[in-house]
Amino acid sequence: MSRSPARNYWYLYEAILRVVDDLVRTHTTNSVGPDLLRQRVNDRETVELLLVVGYYLGVALLAAAVDLDPDPPAQMAVIDAATTTPREPRDPRAHHARAARGVPA
Fold it and tell me: Which pTM was predicted?
């Protein structure tokens, strides 16, 4: 009897969460988590998961060490103003004049 795709993902997520939880709490893993993970992903994917977790732990440690206070989110009006340029309204007569001369819009 084969498992449904959703059930297969559940087993994968369970293995990933077990390994990540161990790494975050103890900075190591017990034998159960990696064994479960190796049953579901290949060695390269296991190494990628360990690198991602290690990277984020490193960033978290750095932020804590220097007492980094993240910037509050910017107001959307500021972002909109910085990324858009004002445009002058188009003159519909110019479009018709170009079309009459055979010039594409």
Answer: 0.57
